[in-house]
Amino acid sequence: MSGTGSPDFFYREAQRLGYVARSAFKLLQIQKQYKLITPGSSVLDLGCAPGAWLQVACQNLGPLTKGGVVVGIDVKKVKVPQHNCDSRVQTVCADIMNFSRDRIRALSPQKSFSVILSDMCPPVSGITTTDSAISFELGMRALDIAVGRGASAQMEGYLEGSATCSNEEDDNGVLQKGGHLVIKLLESEDVQEVRRICKPLFRKASWLRPKATRSSSREIYLICQGLQSQKKV
């Protein structure tokens, strides 16, 4: 495969299986290896456009009788795909940098989520340092939403002065104890710092570059498993 938009095996398989994008295979591999989403899970999908991860997440909720919910948030208006999605899937058009945790909580019957997926990525400018910096900020916002500002003193230096939501009513995150977090980042010197921050917060934090990632891409995923009890600071 050469060009960014060139059809390849994953593109053709996505069309054959009814996925709206080849990116579905990234989450399919993550799910196969880590089994983050279980029947009845409550899943938050940050940067959900065009909807492929919504499809995969809903597929793994099990039958309707098991319950569960999938909530997608994106700056673009995203229509819930008909294939592989059911009534448990909903989308919200919002800028996650200005969308408070309280408003996110209100989207889940449990007022929290067992799995948070962040596939957010900045529009590629071609300037490596700029793209990496924005990707890092989006990744830190996903972590902030999940664990809250009060969860780790290590986060304060990175969140201070950033574009994260300034009208939060409390410091608590929306990820349940024992829950899982997936963050997409662009490889840079800063990505190891994100893992360093996550390691004491989660039972395990590891890197994965899915097979469906294009060879020209710098995307890498941080898989954080099992949010642990945290001392507020």
Automatic annotation (TrEMBL):
It comes from the Eukaryota. Residues 19-226 form the Ribosomal RNA methyltransferase FtsJ domain. CDD domains: AdoMet_MTases. The keyword Transferase applies. GO terms for molecular function: rRNA (uridine-2'-O-)-methyltransferase activity. The active site is at residue 184. Keywords: Methyltransferase, rRNA processing, S-adenosyl-L-methionine, Transferase. It holds the Pfam family FtsJ. Belongs to the class I-like SAM-binding methyltransferase superfamily. RNA methyltransferase RlmE family. This is rRNA methyltransferase 2, mitochondrial.
